[in-house]
Amino acid sequence: MTRCVHFVRTSPSGLLEVDIEAAKGAGVRFGYWSYLDGGREAASIASPLASALGLEHAPYGPLPWVEFLDDLITFAHRYDGLAIVVDRADHLVNERSSELFECVEAFLHQFHHWYDQKKPCHLFFQMVDDPHVTKLFTQGARKTG
């Protein structure tokens, strides 16, 4: 079982930092984006999510999820792993559930590029307001790693 898509409700304080630092030490790139940061206004959440992750071709054109997964495939050849955190996904589910499903579909479509290389690749949806998670990923250099 790959367990590559996660819906998270809480984070135990202290444990998350240790896991993140260990993963960064192993070459895993972290990307953080809050749905409340441009998700409501965007035609598709693919572009603001991709911009926050530092993906190459964002913002995207008329086929945003195709371009998003293409950029993630490129990342699979550049990094030793990837962890994407989508914060405030509770609002995303309530307001734009079809976009959440498009995101998961695009992510899973490209996942095998990581899996075949035995590289970790995870997509986390933070489902409740957790100031600890927000602070952890928005402090300076912790935004992406």
Mean pLDDT: 89
What's the arrangement of strands in the largest beta sheet? 1-4-3-2
Structural class: alpha/beta
CA-based shape: globular
Measured by DSSP, the beta-strand proportion falls in: 15-25%
What is the CATH topology?
Answer: Rossmann fold
- How many helices? 5
Number of strands: 4
* Largest sheet, strands/sense/barrel: 4 strands, parallel
Number of domains: 1
Work out the radius of gyration: 14 Å
Name the CATH architecture.
Answer: 3-Layer(aba) Sandwich
Element string (H = helix, E = strand): EHEHHEHEH
Give the terminus-to-terminus CA distance.
26 Å
CATH level 1 class label: Alpha Beta
What are the segments in which pLDDT stays under 50 over at least 5 consecutive residues?
141-145
> What is the helix content?
40-55%
Kindly describe this structure.
This protein has 145 residues and is of the alpha/beta class. It has one domain: 3-Layer(aba) Sandwich (Rossmann fold), CATH 3.40.50. 46% of the residues lie in helices and 17% in strands. The chain has helices at 15-25, 46-53, 64-76, 89-115, 131-138; strands at residues 5-8, 28-34, 81-87, 121-126. A four-stranded parallel β-sheet has the order 1-4-3-2, with helices on both faces. Helix 4 (89-115) links the parallel strand 3 and strand 4 (121-126). Helix 3 packs across helix 4. The two termini are 26 Å apart.
